[in-house]
Model the fold of this input.
Amino acid sequence: MVPRTPRAPGLGVDRGGWQIFAAQGLSGLGTAPFVVFGPIFQRQLGATAVEIGLIGALGLVLGTLSMLPGTWLAEQYHLRRTIFWGWLLTLPAPLLFALAPDWRLTAIGTVFLGVAVCNTPAINVYLTLEVPRDRISFVMTTVVSAFSLGLIVATVACGWLAQMIGIRWLFAGAFLLFVAAAACVANLPRKTLPPDATVRVAYRDLLRFRPYVVGVALFSAVTVIIFIPWTFTTLYAREVLHADDLTIGMLMAVFYLGSVFIGLALSRLRGAVGPMVVVLGFEAAFIASAILLLSAGAFPIIAVAFFLRGAFWSFRQVMTALVGEALPSRALAKGYGLFALVTGVAAAVASPIGGWLYGVEPRLAFWTSAALMGAALVATVLAAAALRPQAVTGPRPAPSVAPGREEPASKAA
Done:
């Protein structure tokens, strides 16, 4: 029996979690050109607003469908292998963007970025193993915050580098960063499985957990609202706010800074104030950001709007952890996978809607999402009682008391 992976002091993140933290940070650095200049680059290559929305929807749909095999692999506990191969799938995307003669090749690159998220259920389960239930949200948010930290650094640099060397060379550099990220997770340590790891559950069994069902329904609706304007955030800054490349880079750095500070602060407060206050905090920050963004005021006001809007970047990870707290250990893989699948469909539906609204009037996409989020905030208050975890879920068995079998060895490790 391989001994349990020791937990790091303080934050409670083990060595495997810190390796994923490093990979997330490098991926954040490499993803910055896609986030900051992806839609702008596609527009320069001749794509319309509707086509940009459809490309975004394509990536989201494929990412959603990839949750099916990703969930199966996580349920079989092929965790380390799945995590590694998911990162390898990102490698063709930056090369395709760098070499694209027109916007169609960027669509193929988006396909690779979409299917690469098939490792999401495996990452969620891996981070959950050997972590106390009341720490899941904070550990997940801490590890994934590395992605935002990478983006904070890279978005400012991207704005300056885009003016110096051009956008295509940024995508070429992203390829090297993705290679380094894959190397970080090539040899993750094994983890001990819970005693009920061999028990399999059907998707219909998840319906027995009312807080999980209500959480999936509510957070899927919120995902639609969030993603209506998301694809067009930087395009709005360019076309409506008339920001240059450097300013856009600075604004997106502020955006991801907000995701780190607000995400970690709210997840840290989760134990003290309860999950509903955390959810309401995210929703309120989104509404406030829309009001400030649409005011088209001076740069400091727009920067505050981007800071508050960054909260949504951490929202899905925190919500993933919260719905996971409503499930027993044996249902985590399928529960995380189904949540990612349903919210992925929601995001894919939202993207073309946002493209159509932006094409009619750029501000309309942002006003619509803000109004809908107000309705979602009311729905969250009404659903608070139903979202409380049931006693049947109970604490996850401690591996030190009743250890399960060790995670199967990965050929990639």
Summary: The chain has a mean pLDDT of 78. The CA atoms of residues 243 and 252 lie 12 Å apart. Residues 15-187+199-387 form a domain with the Growth Hormone; Chain: A; fold (CATH 1.20.1250.20). The first helix runs from residue 15 to 44.
